[in-house]
Amino acid sequence: MDLKLIDDSGKAGTTVAGSDALFAREYNEALIHQLVIAFQANARSGNRAQKSRGQINKSHKKPWQQKGTGRARAGQANSPLWRGGGKIFPNLPDENFSQKVNRKMYRAGIASILSQLVREGRLSVVERIVLDAPKTRVFAQKIKAFGLSGTAGVNEGRLMTVLLAPVVSEKATFVADKHNQVIFRVRPDATKKDVKAAVELVWKDKKVEVESVQIVNVHGKPKRFGAYSGRRRRWKKAYVCLKPGHEINFAQEA
Q1: What DSSP designation does 73 have?
Q2: Average pLDDT over residues 117-134
C-alpha cells in the first residue's frame, strides 16, 4: 500500500510504502462498533448514586391508620411508591461499566479504521514538521499550509445537516450589527468545530471565514394547556463570529 507523502511546501510529490496488514484491511463495521462502545463504556466514571428506602431520612411513623380513611394503605413515607421515597434498585457508585477488549481485536479494529481512512483519502503522511515556536497558532498555520485544514476528512453530508435554521429576531439583528455575528439553530450534537466547518462549507462560494463560535443550550419554556403542564423541547443555538470583512446577508439570499 502506497501512501502519499507531503513535503514542506504542502505538495504530494512522492509516496511511501505502508504495510498491507495495517493499511489494506477490509472494513469491519461490527468490530469497530464494538471498540467504540467499549471505549465509551470505559470512559464512564461510575459515580452516580441513588438512595434506597433505608437511606431516606423520613419518619417511620405510619402516615394514617390502616382502615377507615378511604385512602390506600401506607406503612412509611420512605416507600418507593411515594414521591421522594427511596429507589427499589438504586444505582450504586461502585458500579463497574468497563468492558474488556482483546489485544487482537483492538489491533484489527485500528487497522480497519486506518485502512478505511486511506481509501477515503483522509490519511496523509507528512515528511517533517518544523515549527518556529511551540505555539498552537503556529502549528495550526503549518497544518493549513499543508492543505489539511478546513473540511478535509469531514463528512460533508453530515455538515449540511448541522445548521437547522438562522435565528431571526431583534436580538439577533442587534448582535449581527454590533459584533458581526450570526445566530443559527444547530443540531443537538453539534460542536464548535462542526458549526465552523458547516458555515464555511455552505458559504464557500463567498469565501466566508469564521473567527470563533459560541454554543448555548436553550432550555424549553414552561407551557400549560388546561390541566396539562410541561415544557417545550430543548434546543441549541450557535453564535458565529465572522472575520472582519466577511458577512452573511440572508435578505439578499432570500
Answers
A1: P
A2: 84
